[in-house]
Amino acid sequence: MKKIIIVLLGMSVMLMAQRPDMFEEKRNIEAMRIYRLIDVLDLSDSQVDAFIPALKKHDKKIKELRDSKADAIRDGRKLYDEESLSQKQVDKLFQTLNKIDSDINQERQKFIASLSKYLDPKQQLKYIGFDQRFRNEVGKFLRGREDFNQQRDDFNRKKRK
After folding, report:
1. Could you tell me the CA-to-CA distances from 40 to 44, 105, 126, 135 in Å, in that order?
2. Average pLDDT over the chain, rounded to whole?
3. Is the C-alpha dihedral spanning 98, 139, 125, 117 positive or negative?
4. Cα-to-chain-centroid distance, residue 111
5. Global pTM?
6. Measured between alpha carbons, how far is residue 49 from residues 5, 54, 79, 115, 119 in Å?
7. Separation of alpha carbons 30 and 9, rounded Å
């Protein structure tokens, strides 16, 4: 099972070499994250079968909360443009944002507390550091690619002139 997942995830990563749309790119990055997580934590087949669905459920919940926060921030931008902005409206927005942040922290704490159901103590510690490192690596990769694309576009514009 683990080998099949690794092969499928590896194939999806190879597809990243093509220029996918934003949705496909996010899916490919997520596939790479799962692949790397399985590898770094050295998960057994039974751990993969139990941990990955729990991780995906956690990720989905965090995404929903972040989307709610983004909606609240958009509401705040709309409030800013209103003629009759009141302190009560601002306080309510801040209260909503604080509640969402609190919910995100609670969800993370709940998930971290559940890690012992799926991972041994060393794997738990590796997991804690993995997520942040992976996000940093992806950020660097995307920024580097943006720089490359910008340089390529600049070069092509100069070439056309």
Report:
1. 12, 25, 8, 15
2. 84
3. positive
4. 15
5. 0.71
6. 10, 9, 46, 14, 12
7. 9
Q: Is the dihedral of CA 57, 62, 68, 74 positive or negative?
A: negative
Classify residue 156 by burial, with Cβ atoms within 10 Å: 0-12, 13-18, 19+.
exposed
d(CA 62, CA 105): 9
What phi, psi does 126 have (nearest 5°)?
-65, -40
Q: What percent of the chain has pLDDT over 70?
A: 75
> Which pLDDT tens digit goes with each residue over 87-142?
999 999 999 999 999 999 999 999 999 999 999 999 999 999 898 888 888 888 87
Burial class (CB in 10 A: 0-12, 13-18, 19+), 54: middle
Distance CA 108, CA 102 (A): 10
Calpha distance 36→152 (Å, rounded): 30
Q: Could you tell me if 3 and 43 are in contact, meaning their C-beta atoms sit under 8 angstroms apart?
A: no
